Amino acid sequence: MVRLRFPLVPRWLRLGGVVAVAATILYFSVFTPSGSGAVRTGPFGLLPYSTWLHGLAYFGLAATLAYAVQDTPWPDRTVLGVVFLAAVGYGGGIELLQSTLDARTADFGDLLVNAVGATVAAVLWRVLTRPVRFYHVRRLADLELPVR
After folding, report:
1. Exposure winner among 94, 104, 110, 127, fewest CB in 10 A?
2. How far apart are CA 111 and CA 122, in angstroms?
3. DSSP conformational letter for 48
4. Looking at the predicted structure, is the pLDDT value of residue 21 above 90?
5. How far apart (Å, rounded) are the C-alpha atoms in residues 122 and 59?
6. DSSP labels for 17-45?
7. CA distance 89 to 137
8. Cα separation of 81 and 84, whole Å?
9. Which phi and psi (to 5°) does residue 102 adopt?
10. In this predicted model, what pLDDT tens digit does every residue of 68-124 receive, in sequence order?
């Protein structure tokens, strides 16, 4: 069986990605951008646009968290449980923060969509990384071909 190889950049850089995603979510959860509300439905007209944004945001947060902690010695299930709980906990904190703001409202439905996004990311991470061998990269010269 061919195992794909995927680089693990230094942990500080991976955690920086998590912080960047979390900060972006926080910013757009607190401040209402101009032009928001102009689009009512998301792709395929199935769900509201905000539902898609919540799901994608917490999918992204959980995926970056999973990548950031990929090299921990914990079992896969523990890592994915921590990733899920951290993403959903962050979403809960954001909803609590929104409940204190005049321009925003807290919504349990948003929290559920956040949890669905985080769940999908955790499940896909587990399935898609099964055939992957991660290796540490300290500099560009350390990069390897994905398949040998």
Report:
1. 127
2. 16
3. B
4. yes
5. 8
6. HHHHHHHHHHHHHHS--TTTTS--B-GGG
7. 30
8. 5
9. -70, -40
10. 999 999 898 898 999 999 999 999 999 999 999 888 888 898 999 999 999 999 999
pLDDT of residue 123: 94
Token representation of residue 72: 């921990």
Distances 45 to 41, 62, 120, 131, 134 between C-alpha atoms, Å: 5, 25, 21, 35, 38
CA torsion sign, 41 to 45 to 48 to 54?
A: negative
Which of these, 106, 119, 110, 104, lies nearest to 47 by C-alpha position? 110
* DSSP classification of residue 46: S
What phi-psi label fits residue 57: left (phi over 0), alpha (psi between -120 and 50 degrees) or beta? Answer: alpha
